[in-house]
Amino acid sequence: MLVDGLPTGSAEKAVLTLASGLVALGHHVAIFSLRSVCHYTLPEGVVYQVITDKHRSSWLNINESKRRAQHLDEIISRTQKFEGDYDLVISHLYNSDKIVARCRSLDQNKVWFCLHEMLSVSSDLSRSGYSGRINKKSIQRVYQQRNIIAVSQSILDDIKQTYQIEPARSAIIGNPYNIAEIQNQMNEPFTPPEEAYLLHVGGLDQNKRHDRLLEAYALSGVTLPLVLLGESETAQLGTLKAQAQTLGIEDRIIFQGYCANPYPWMRKAKALVQSVDTEGFGDAALEAMLCGTPVISTRSATGTVALLKGDLERGLADANAPALAEKIREVVTNPPDVSAVDFSQFETQQVCQQYLALN
Fold it and tell me: Which segments constitute the Glycosyl transferase family domain (predicted)?
């Protein structure tokens, strides 16, 4: 596994869950991190190595991918000399992919690039004009005729249609979950609000569209408190508090901040509400449903749309505040039943077998 560091994030969490599951099945797993950041406890039995870029001169950045690929090649060649060739290589996230794509020490038939987000709407890549054309060419160089895994069908469709990428091989494999562990953690003690509440889980970044969320909540007329669970920068937090005050809902918004275990909050919530412009897989939605909680979401959250089938579709809204407000009222009044949903396809061991079948 190669990844651009391990900060807090759904993609990084998926990498570690997958690695842990493969070790449990008896496989030798190594994670090569291309940055020295790691905010998680590493799974037992996983070999972990940080491969950082020692160059600091800004003028060298134009050749960064090539230079770092050469450095990575040296380490991989040395490792394979003593341990044998890797049977399967998975690169996660674009910053890793553009380096791995230049490696010459790896059998490219064994290398797969795992896409966790729509590159066309990524904040780093979705540019217009000259820089946008440069980014498009760069993306084509990385992924054209490569083996591609996407965590959702919409992500694969996006890269094929937007960038005219034709994969050598492709697969749709969702993120892995230790379902029993999640359902055990959701019963851990915590101190919830005294009354029922709505919940949003996610960092306060622009893509999450908390501005739309607060407006929809105000329009809904629902009086249940809205709990926002997630990291936030001071400036963004101040902006949202000011918006809540303008909307007259400041006394019903609870800025709870980051929580290492969100599952008890999910279990007790009346519903999880998402207002994003786009997303990869739909991790928060699936985790909420694993905790028995229905989901309200904008349809632009394509990963969540793929999860909400049958009666659960009643929670889907167009990506505007009035439509989302209507769904908040509907689900709070008449919540869909999530107890009959079969989540076994997302169990870690099931997902691991899908990865092993790539070899």
Answer: 183-336
What is the pLDDT, as a whole number, of residue 29? 97
Structure tokens at 269: 């919530």
pTM: 0.88
Given this model, what pLDDT does residue 128 score? 58
What mean pLDDT is predicted for residues 109-130? 78
β partners of residue 147? 112, 169
Tens digit of each residue's pLDDT (9 = 90 or more) over 193-207:
888 999 999 887 777
Tokens linked to 73 = 């090649």
Nearest of 149, 198, 193 to residue 171 by alpha carbon: 149
Q: In what order do the strands lie in the sheet with 271-273?
A: 253-257, 226-229, 198-201, 271-273, 295-298, 316-317
Q: Mean pLDDT of all residues in the chain? A: 91
204: number of Cβ within 10 Å:
19
164 to 145, 150, 167, 228, 335: CA distances (angstroms): 11, 16, 10, 38, 41
Written as one string, the DSSP assignment of 263-314 is HHHHHH-SEEE---S--SS-HHHHHHHHTT--EEEETT-HHHHHH--GGGGG
CB neighbourhood size of 57 (10 A) = 6
243-254 pLDDT tens trace:
999 999 999 999
pLDDT at residue 57 is higher than 90: no
